[in-house]
UniProtKB/TrEMBL annotation:
Species assigned in the record: Pedobacter steynii
Highest taxon above the source species: Bacteria
Protein name: N-acetyltransferase domain-containing protein
Length: 230
């Protein structure tokens, strides 16, 4: 299997946004989740949103992830999701605002590539591009089943929020956790292999790499330089 991971800026590529959203909504429906707050369209119109799409050779979008830069005007998706349950979410994000912070969110992959292992690859790629948008730290919110994956790349549970870091979200069947990545530059809390891969993607944002996944090797054509649009 060969996929291209391509970065984009939301406001500059409405068509890419539509294809991303369509795939994401479908996956959520497949799992019976229909009330995700980040699943709206507002992010498409925010100049501070960058994303990465996973595309097949035929151009089908089969996965994606986004990075939202905190701009002090629009709440980050995590604030919208669980901020009403704990007002300290906004307070903590604010502490990191001056040095540049944001959120990794909207991660999904289509059922057609389930089990291939592209989620961790998208997460690494999402963290890799934050040096291009000058973020010093990063937050995320994740479900229990993705906790081991996001911890590998260096996110730390923010246990001062919710009940020991836990929130009932997006519905009663799920527990979500808010995590912070203390240092998006040094990645000091990431596992060594993940840290090295992220640094390599930062240094070489355009590369063709054979990645080993649970179902064998996947060829990824990384195109992670955020385009300079006319």
């Amino acid at each position: 299997m060969k996929l291209t991971f391509r970065s984009f800026t939301a406001v500059k590529e409405p068509e890419t946004c539509e294809r991303y959203l369509e795939g994401h909504v479908q996956v959520l429906k497949d799992y019976g989740i229909t009330n995700i707050t980040t699943n709206n369209r507002q992010w498409m119109e925010l100049p501070n949103v960058h994303g990465i799409v996973a595309e097949t050779e035929s151009g089908e979008v089969v996965g994606g992830v986004r990075v939202h830069i905190a701009d002090g005007i629009h709440p980050l998706p995590v604030e919208k999701a669980v901020g009403s349950m704990d007002p300290n979410v906004a307070t903590i994000i604010n502490q990191y605002f001056d040095s540049g912070t944001g959120e990794l969110c909207g991660l999904w992959n289509a059922k057609s590539v389930a089990g291939v292992g592209i989620s961790i690859l998208l997460v690494r790629a999402g963290i890799a591009i934050v040096n291009q948008i000058r973020l010093a730290s990063l937050f995320t919110i994740c479900a229990d089943y993705t906790l081991p994956m996001v911890r590998k790349v260096g996110f730390v549970v923010e246990d001062s929020l919710g009940k020991g870091g836990e929130f009932v979200y997006p519905n009663d069947n799920y527990i979500a956790r808010v995590l912070r990545k203390m240092n998006a530059k040094t990645l000091e809390t990431a596992e060594e292999f993940d840290r090295e891969r992220i640094f390599d993607l930062r240094d070489n944002p355009i590369q063709l790499t054979l990645e080993t996944g649970p179902k064998g090797d996947v060829e990824i054509d990384y195109q992670l330089l955020i385009p300079k649009y006319e």
